[in-house]
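We now fix the convention by which a protein and its fold are recorded. The integers have meaning only within a learned vocabulary of local backbone shapes. A complete example follows; check for yourself that the lines match position by position.
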Amino acid sequence: MQYPSEHVPISDGTFTLLRNLIHERIGLYYDMSRRDVLMDRLSPRIIELGLGSSLDYYYLLKYSDTESQEWSYVVDVLSVPETYFWREMDQVQALVEYLVPKLVAAKPDSPLRIWSAACATGEEPLTIAMALNEAGWFDRTAIEINASDASPRAIAKARQGLYRERSFRSLPRTLWDRYFVERNGVWQISPEIHSRVRWAVANLMAPHEIAGFANAPIIFCRNVFLYFSQEAMSIVVHHFYHCMPAPGFLFLGAAESLLRINTPFELQEIGQSFVYVKR
């Protein structure tokens, strides 16, 4: 079927059904003002599959498992992979200078677990690994860094460890030179640092997918809730709280807040940053 300008039309009712299904399955929320944004991203797939309407695509997703290839496609095209090295470093400094010493001292014989819960293409967990390495922590204690994202395409890129200049906008040049090697116009992360991170595909809205990561005492979940509804955010945060040990420390992005949801997490200032704490 041919569509004008390769943009599949969608009625108000079908948009509501499709929008609500995406929200339920992966947390992303599109209000009516972002209707064209959603269809711009999904229309090429609907056309590729030869479906007769956007309602047909809704039914295809409705009866597909969230881990299916079709939902993987949806997550890939709707994800916003905006990230870079050394982003919001006051929080990483609070981790390295205050939390790691505190948690290691409390349990010196246990590995310290850190989870980057929406890592996109990997710059955040690799930043954490570089900062810990700079402070000498890998020589002093066992630290496990897990990194996940709902987008299989993003995780595939993270596993490659190859980055372009846009990822280095905040990284000091000395660290760029120390941890990266140029290969045909892209930069390869040091294998030593890259091997410190274990990568996985995990949907924050699927408790069974994240339970094995959310029992970490330190979770970075930054700049993903900007695209979630308040309801979806509450579901994910409460699951974090249920799984995390006490004390547990949750880092959100600078533009994010839990003030609008009912949560037992307490906001505290640690170092030069704010952290949500499970006592």
